[in-house]
Design brief:
9 helices; about 220 residues; mainly alpha
Length: about 220
Amino acid sequence: MGKLKAKTTDMIRGRIGAAAANLFPGYFALVMATGIISIAAFQLQMKPVAWVLLAINLIAYVILWLLLLIRLVRFFPRVKADIMDHARGPGFFTVVAGTCVLGSQLVIVAGQYRAAAALWFVGILLWLLIMYTFFTAVTVREDKPEFETGISGTWLLAAVATQSISVLGTLLADYFITYRDSLLFFTLCMFLLGCMLYLILITLIFYRFTFVKLTTVTLTPP
């Protein structure tokens, strides 16, 4: 009985380790998508659906963070390789967007401003870390890919992450009533920064689609 229990435990640990090792950086898009649908359902007066999706989202967010932390501790070289990769690196921006979308979900659906504020500050710290780490890494990298394989629609996640901070911060403006004007100015700046990033990146993507030969390989997901 003890051997069977130990074997089962080792099997579970092995599967969790494998899941963490192969975790795609963009998996936090699950939290983004679920949060968006939940908010839409709430605004369409489908409140039971919104609450169920909120519960699912909280569970998914915790599980993904546990896998990401395991990956950072046990498989850091893989994380480092991903953040320096032109195709997989932008996926890390889903961590920022997912965090802030969950915060917006907590404000709109549950009215939990304090928890949402904590997620907002976490989102800002993650944005600073990922934004500067990724763009610095791909800039100083020596062996850079060809243009047609290096840039894709996933790069637009940088704009999405920036805008998600702006949206959640605006929703929290009434919670931080003392700093409301300064907060709204900050969220406006983030909104404009997100617009700037979008214009730059969509121009490069449009150039790629229009002037660079496309193949089925270059159009596949990263």
